[in-house]
Amino acid sequence: MVRRAWAWWRAHKALVDLVFVAPLLLVSVLSVSAYTAPPHGAPAGPIPEPVYAALVAGLLLPLVVRRRWPVQVFLWIAAVSFGQWLFDVTVILANMGVLIAMYTVAANCSFRWMVTAGLIGELGAVLAALRYTVEPGARKYTVVMLSAVVAGVWILGVYISTRRAYLRSLEERAARLERERDTQVQIAMAAERARIARELHDVVAHNVSVIVVQADGASFAIETDTERARRALEAISATGRLALAEMRRLLGVLREGDDAGSYAPQPGVAQLTDLVEQIRGSGLPLDFRVEGVPVELPPGMQLTIFRIVQESLTNTLKHGGPGASARVRLHYGDEAIEVTVADDGRGAAARDDGLGHGLAGMRERAAVYGGSVRAGPRAGGGFEVVARLPLREEARST
């Protein structure tokens, strides 16, 4: 209700100002006899009725549009008042329109016009005191009194202007913070989508590659070696279940209201042994060694190492060709951890479909921890991936 009333108030400024001026206009009309009748005339003499009506209209009616044209209305009313002073026409109640117009300028216009309106108002107070004060000795008191009134109205207008500027700055700041918050949310959402895309790529590409290799082996051995074909089918079944479980865990973060604690933990360095056994089970000869003194690593860095090894071995399965073998080295140094995955497959001769995101994903994962990834064909044949992840001080001291 309050908001609707305020919106209506702001949308009908002229009508609101007319209602505001109406009491003063009504009192001025009812007081016509006090200024036009000779017995009750002011010190400067009675005012003819046409002149009085023109003064009331010229001083009060422009106030209806004071907020639309504050400077023009103030200058007009000040000019009418100055003409009134110049022709020695007595002050009337409608001259309060000067104070209202001055307040409007001080509350709505720039600092230059604030000061100008204040100086004009002060000049009018001095001129009115000098012209309309009957006792010469009382003129200085009249000047002080009128100046105090003008200064009070002007200060009130400046205060309102400052208050409005402060509220506008708060609204702009709140809007800016809201935009920044929305931007941060969008950035976080985009980063999360990219992370999930990398995870899905790693999971799907690796497990599907293993399934394809096992399926090819089973198709060749199904008539000559049924036991080997059976083991290959079992490996396909286990790999498929593992892939489904990891995909459910990754896609679960997109559901609202689910319990994050119900998902399996992210794989780490400890799961590299299981990964190696899975790859060996798919028919790829693999040599895995850990060198140096292992240290405790953050879960995110462990996941990065696991995914780099997984993606590299997946590429070997996809592009290494028949008869390829691979080796994995996880070296714990004093300053960094180095992961090396090399194979003796096709290397530079392997065909790239251009659809994968594996190498880009490796580099992005390593960059999070200030590391780097170097990948390319080996000089003697095959392909090699070398990732280097710096160790933090707390990890080196563990």
Automatic annotation (TrEMBL):
Which InterPro entries does the entry link to?
A: DUF7134, HATPase_C_sf, HATPase_dom, Sensor_HK_TwoCompSys, Sig_transdc_His_kin_sub3_dim/P
Q: Which UniProt keywords apply?
A: ATP-binding, Coiled coil, Kinase, Membrane, Nucleotide-binding, Phosphoprotein, Transferase, Transmembrane, Transmembrane helix, Two-component regulatory system
Where exactly are the transmembrane stretches of this chain?
50-66, 73-105, 111-130, 142-160
* A cellular-component GO term for this protein: membrane
Domain Histidine kinase/HSP90-like ATPase span(s) in chain numbering: 300-393
Name the reaction it catalyses. ATP + protein L-histidine = ADP + protein N-phospho-L-histidine
Protein name in the entry: histidine kinase
Q: Which residues form a coiled coil?
A: 160-187
According to its UniProt record, the EC number is 2.7.13.3
Instruction: Say which species the protein is native to.
Output: Thermomonospora echinospora
**GO MF annotations for this entry?**
ATP binding; phosphorelay sensor kinase activity; protein dimerization activity
PANTHER family, per the entry:
NITRATE/NITRITE SENSOR PROTEIN NARX-RELATED, NITRATE_NITRITE SENSOR PROTEIN NARQ
